[in-house]
């Protein structure tokens, strides 16, 4: 599956005590247009997993090529009780409080639709309630073979 190229997103949610949590995810997909649904796959042993079960909402910011450092930061290993500090990157609060990264190529805000058990992961399905109009990123960040790339020229 590492050979399947995909976009890079940052899933953000507030934990049960209101702290910002974010995780770099590449297993992301559009699921349905009516209702508008997206999914993100999250490992069960990850620090953000349990927050999804109690969150009022979560967001996906689809990272731009100049946000590579942010992607690495949100993908780092964390110990229990670790905190995320996203202050170096431009953000705003979504309607339910989680962060949206305004330097992203695109972003959606979601309310929980369902959480599906999937082996060592949970598939978080969210109903899109807002599409960001204030993002400034140009080229989407791409991940394949455990490396990052920017899109190349169009091929026909």
UniProtKB/TrEMBL annotation:
InterPro entries according to UniProt: Flavin_Rdtase-like_dom, NADH-dep_flavin_reductase, Split_barrel_FMN-bd
GO molecular function: FMN binding; riboflavin reductase (NADPH) activity
Flavin reductase like domain sequence ranges: 1-150
Keyword vocabulary terms for this entry: Oxidoreductase
Keyword Oxidoreductase among record annotations: yes
Keyword Oxidoreductase: yes
PANTHER family named among the record's database cross-references: FLAVIN REDUCTASE, FMN REDUCTASE (NADH) RUTF
Protein name: Flavin reductase
Species this chain originates from: Jiangella ureilytica
């Amino acid at each position: 599956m590492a050979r399947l190229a995909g976009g890079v997103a940052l899933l953000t949610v507030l934990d049960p005590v209101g702290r910002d949590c974010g995780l770099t995810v590449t297993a992301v997909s559009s699921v349905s247009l009516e209702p508008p649904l997206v999914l993100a796959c999250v490992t069960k042993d990850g620090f953000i997993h349990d927050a999804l079960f109690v969150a009022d909402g979560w967001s996906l910011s689809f990272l731009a090529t100049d946000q590579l450092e942010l992607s690495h930061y949100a993908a780092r290993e964390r110990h229990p009780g670790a905190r995320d500090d996203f202050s170096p990157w431009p953000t705003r609060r979504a309607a339910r409080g989680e962060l949206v990264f305004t330097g992203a190529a695109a972003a959606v805000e979601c309310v929980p639709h369902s959480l599906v058990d999937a082996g060592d992961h949970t598939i978080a399905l969210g109903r899109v309630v807002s599409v960001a109009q204030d993002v400034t990123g140009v080229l989407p960040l791409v991940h394949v073979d455990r490396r990052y790339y920017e899109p190349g020229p169009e091929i026909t």
